[in-house]
Amino acid sequence: MEYIDKVIIQAARVGNTEVIRELISRGTDINCQDEKGYTPLIIACYNNHFEAAKTLLEANADVNAMDFGGNTALMGVSFKGYPDIAELLIAHGADLNLQHGNGGTALMFAAMFGRNNLVKMLINHGADKYLLDNRGLSVIDLAVQQGNEEAIAILEQETAA
Questions:
Q1: Fewest CB within 10 A of the end CB: N or C in the chain?
Q2: pLDDT confidence of 159, banded at 50, 70, 90?
Q3: Distance CA 150, CA 152 (A)
Q4: Where do the ANK repeats lie (predicted)?
Q5: Contacts of 157 (CB under 8 A, 6+ apart)
Q6: CB 138, CB 129: distance < 8 Å
């Protein structure tokens, strides 16, 4: 990895939008990847840096880029529980139904980790609750495994509607 890639990735990690903007103005590859395949956008989102993520998206960062495990920025914020960044990603065209290496989706992450506001948000934006992971489990199955009664209620209510 080139030195400049390390700089933009570190700027994304700490949310330094000033450095990100400067690097973008110099033509830096905003979709570069580190040794795990993380892009600056994935890193900014995972670390809850809204303005950094917005800056990268406005510069046309790939909203659906995947790390080497198949995880996207939307999956990361669904796991971590950052609804404002999830809305930002969705507004920029994030694919709600991408599946990572084990078949998990952003909706599955939200349900498994009790991010029920994100479960509702993703459903409201059209996430597919019928997708199955590599073990054949649906988001409702995963919510049941975790004892996430609220997510189960949200998913069943949305299914009945």
A1: C
A2: low
A3: 5
A4: 11-35, 36-68, 69-101, 102-134
A5: none
A6: yes
Q: What is the DSSP string of 92-117?
A: TT--TT---TTS--HHHHHHHTT-HH
Q: Which residue type sits at 55? A: T
**Mean pLDDT across 100-111:** 96
Give yes or no for residue 161 having a pLDDT over 80.
Answer: no
Residue-level pLDDT at 158:
59
d(C-alpha 91, C-alpha 88), whole Å: 5
Whether the CB-CB separation of 11 and 20 falls below 8 Å is answered with yes
Q: What is the residue-wise DSSP string for 108-161?
A: HHHHHTT-HHHHHHHHHTT--TT---TTS--HHHHHHHHT-HHHHHHHHHHHH-
In whole angstroms, what is the distance from residue 12 CA to residue 154 CA? 34
In the block, which residue shows the tokens 């400049």? 4
Residue 109 in tokens: 């992450």
Percent of the chain with pLDDT over 90: 93
pLDDT on residue 103:
96
pLDDT of residue 2: 75
Q: How close are the terminal C-alpha atoms of the chain, in Å?
A: 49
With contact defined as beta carbons under 8 Å apart, do 90 and 125 qualify? yes
For residue 43 the two structure tokens come to: 């890193």
